[in-house]
Structures are given as structure tokens and as C-alpha cells.
Amino acid sequence: MFFYIHIPFCRQKCLYCKFALTPRYDERKVQAYISALMREISAFFEENPTVAIETIYFWGGTPSILSPEQIGEIISVFRAQKGCVSVSEITMESNPEDITNEYLKVVSQLWINRLSLGIQTLNNESLHMVGRSDSNESIVRSLATIANSTMENVSIDLMAGLPCTVPWQIRDDLNMIFSYFVPRHVSIYMLENESYPENWKQHLPSEDTIRNEYMSGIEWLKAKGFNHYELSNFAIPGFESKHNQSYWNHSDYRGFWLSAASFIDGKRFVNHASFVRYYRWDKQEDETLNLDSLRIERIMFGLRTNGVCLNDLNNPCMIDRFITEGLLEIREDKVFPTSTWIFLIDHIMGELI
Ligand code: SF4
């Protein structure tokens, strides 16, 4: 089974962020929250003592806000389980400002073998406008630190569509990052929050610019030998994120801590975002997906990854139309978006489900 810990803290809230982030990070209270988390993890393994642990993902929020000792404390609960022999990937999301020689050294000793660095952009104006706590300087410092460390399996996150983006931003950022080291994995997400603050509007790039940024990022990474294995994700072959693939393959996963979602035996549930209600084990959502909901999710995930089985699609006229228009293609009995029109995936999805 795949596991993740949702760290519900950040130093400050980025203005485009939609994640539930409660409570406010308070160093004096964090140990109490961690104790509750440890109880949740221990209770799960008491009920499921032999479950195989495939991956563990420290997801945020900002996981690197926790001290290595606190991360070590959490990992020790997993290490004590019988099923820990099968662990192959432990990912730590980190903000560039938290990366130091000491941090990387300690984190590597804790069993963590994959670092996911939330860069978003190297453009200082964009970083400032969206309220990121990092700057171009702190990001470049983190790149140099990683380049001089033994941490090899590094993933980086970039974002297209931020305010103040300049032409070729993504390519320039990739060039700069790769001049320090070659990440094994890159994610390029699109900013998709319609409720932008008023003062962003005049600084936002046009849809054409966002598309060009994204498409030029794809081209650049493919030329470097990266496998475009999910709409927003690229990897040197063999370094695709095992953990993230579990979501897209409908594998069972268990999330711990506030707001964490789980999917087990076709049932999805989400821990409560309020600490008081989380403490009582209340769920924010709790649903068993019926066959049709699972089919719709397979279409959504399949379009973004390794194709949709023809058996899951029940509107042949629409598929024929999209094939004629060049938006979709069929390979080995599966339907894929064509690479030319991949950025229209949301529109295609809307018509197919
Ligand atoms: S660091 Fe990530 S999770 Fe935290 S506020 Fe910013 S976007 Fe949201």
C-alpha cells in the first residue's frame, strides 16, 4: 500500500493556494499535533499489521517546516512495521529556503531517498506577487547545495501561468536548474485559480503565452530524454514517481493527518481539516465509489497518463469526432490525447465523461 503524510503547515500562505492549511504553524503546539498523527498511524498498523509499505510521501503544506527529528519520529513508526521491507521510495517535499548541507545530510540518514523541490519559478517578481516565501537567490542557493550533496533522486516543481511571467520563462528556468544538476523528475503545473486577486489581472500572461510556456517545456524536456508520463510530469525513464502513479492507477493508498485523503477497497475518505474534529477521527468526506464513478475516474486518469480503455468509453460519435479533428488518437486499443492538443485535455475530458 502507498502512504502519505499531509503536513498541514506553511510559513505563509501563497495567494494561489487551494490546499486546506490549518492550523497556523506554531512551534509550541506542533508536538501535540505530531502525537495525534502518531496515534493515527499506529492505530492503522494495529488493524493492518502485515500490510506491505510500498512508498511514503511527505506532502504539504511544507513538510520541510518540520525538524529532521520530528520527521525521524514519524518515519520510526513505519520502520517498526513488518511490511516496511518493501519500501522503495520515500519522498520529502521541501521548500528551497529549507535546504542546507546539514538538512540534506540528516534527511538522507532518515531513509528518505527522494527530494521534491518546490521551485515554481526563478522569476523574483512572480514569486513576490504570489506570496512565495522563496526568492531567486534562495532557490539558486538550494540548487548549489543539492549539487554538492549525495542526494541524487531530485524532482523539481515549476509552474506555468504565474503573474509577471516573461517569454521563455520555463525554458530559462530549466536551463538554470540543469546547469547545477540534472533532476531525475520534473513537474510543470498550470496555475488554475480563477479567483485571482484583483491586482494580478494586468500581470497575468495570456492563454497563448501559458500554452507556449507549457509546450516549450515539454519539448525541452523530451529533447533531454525525459518521459512525459503524465500531463504535468516528466521523468528520466525509471524515475517516474511510484507514489503518484498509485493515485492514477487506482491503487490503495492511505493518507495521514489533517485533510489527508485515503482510497481503500473502492472507498474514499478525507480526514477533517479542523484539528478538534480530526482529533475525534471525524471525516470531512466519506464515500464508496460506485462502478460508474470509478469508470469516470479511469477516463480522467487515463487521458492524463497511459490512455483510456475503449471499454470505458460509451460515446463513440464524440471519440470519432475528436479523432477526425486530431485531438485524440487510438493506439493498442486505448485512446490518448495527441501531443499537439494535449493542453485541451480538460475540454476533451468534459466531453467524454
Ligand atoms: S507552500 Fe504550497 S501548500 Fe504552502 S501555501 Fe504555498 S502553495 Fe500552498
Task: Outline the structure in words.
With 353 residues, the protein is an alpha/beta fold. The protein contains 12 helices and 15 strands. It has helices at residues 27-47, 68-79, 101-109, 124-129, 136-147, 169-178, 207-223, 242-248, 275-279, 291-304, 316-325, 345-352, and strands spanning 2-7, 55-60, 89-94, 114-120, 154-160, 185-190, 227-230, 233-235, 253-256, 261-264, 267-271, 283-288, 308-309, 328-331, 334-337. The radius of gyration is 21 Å and the shape is globular. The mean pLDDT is 93.
Strand content: 15-25%
Distance N to C terminus = 29 Å
How many strands, which pairing sense, and closed or not: the largest β-sheet?
A: 9 strands, mixed
Helical segment count? 12
Structural class: alpha/beta
Summarize the structure.
The protein has 353 residues and is an alpha/beta fold. The protein has helices at 27-47, 68-79, 101-109, 124-129, 136-147, 169-178, 207-223, 242-248, 275-279, 291-304, 316-325, 345-352; strands at 2-7, 55-60, 89-94, 114-120, 154-160, 185-190, 227-230, 233-235, 253-256, 261-264, 267-271, 283-288, 308-309, 328-331, 334-337.
